[in-house]
Specification:
The chain is of the alpha/beta class and about 250 residues long. It has two domains: about 180 residues, Rossmann fold; about 55 residues, Helicase, Ruva Protein, domain 3. Helices cover about 35% and strands about 20% of the residues. The strands form two sheets. It has a seven-stranded mixed β-sheet. Helix 8 crosses helix 10. The N and C termini lie far apart (about 60 Å).
């Protein structure tokens, strides 16, 4: 019998142990036999086991060498031992894909942005994240949580916060509340150049408390924009669709 695995702080490891929570997550994902699915950060396989029982096969991405070695002993798992930020989802994985994972909270936003260019290949994504991040992802205009993350994810996905997960569901318990989020890509991206939208949104939210004419206004002047976008607002008042329309007009 191999020695118990010690959670590694540098990998942000918190292992889900509450069977009731695991069942609720698996029910939300609703895995079907034959679905092509990849799990990011399977850890001690708490969710991996029920998923693979329903799917038949599962691909997992695990950075921790010791855990990857353990996972390789499972006959129905394909193990990619790598930092997920270095995985090319276009070449390494199937065309139509479902993605799940308990994402390391210290790099959750970079992972979400890394997955954005592959959204056209994805059927859906279910992630466990810090509740504060899920609140920002799903936030509506006019709220304090609405920001760059909300806009950049909502232009590409329907983002739905499903339920909260308390710290005691993990070992070791994190210091924060967690939550499950479902992300379903929109049928067709409404923008051909996401980098332009990203630059625009970054400028817009760079001075949250000021009216947009102080930040975005100058940026648009520099690009020779002559349209009628209302700059007498704060960034948090502008709906996603208006940011997208402005990027398209540029």
């Amino acid at each position: 019998m191999s020695a118990p695995h010690q959670a590694r702080k540098r990998f942000g490891q918190h292992f889900l142990t509450d069977t009731g929570v695991i069942d609720a997550i698996v029910r939300a994902i609703d895995p079907r036999p034959g679905d092509a699915m990849v799990e990011i950060g399977p850890g001690l396989a708490a969710m991996t086991q029920p998923l693979v029982e329903r799917l038949g096969r599962l691909t997992v991405i695990e950075l921790d060498r010791d855990l990857a070695q353990r996972l390789r002993q499972h006959p129905h798992l394909t193990v990619i031992e790598s930092d997920v930020l270095k995985v090319d989802f276009a070449s390494a994985l199937p065309e139509r894909l479902r993605v799940v994972g308990n994402l390391p909270y210290n790099i959750s936003s970079p992972i979400l942005f890394h997955l954005l260019p592959f959204a056209h290949r994805v059927i859906d994504q279910h992630f466990m994240l810090q509740k504060e991040v899920v609140d920002r992802m799903a936030a509506q205009p006019g709220t304090k949580d609405y920001g760059r993350l909300s806009v950049m994810l909502q232009w590409r996905y329907d983002v739905e916060a499903l339920f909260d997960v308390p710290p005691e569901a993990f070992d070791p318990p994190p210091r924060v509340m967690s939550a499950i989020v479902r992300m379903t890509p929109h049928a067709a991206p409404s923008i051909t150049d996401p980098s332009l939208l990203e630059a625009l949104v970054q400028v817009a939210f760079s001075q949250r408390r000021k009216l947009l004419r102080h930040s975005l206004g100058r940026w648009l002047d520099g690009r020779g924009y002559a349209g009628d976008f209302d700059l007498q607002r704060r960034a948090e008042e502008v709906p996603v669709a208006e940011f997208v329309a402005l990027a398209q007009s540029l």
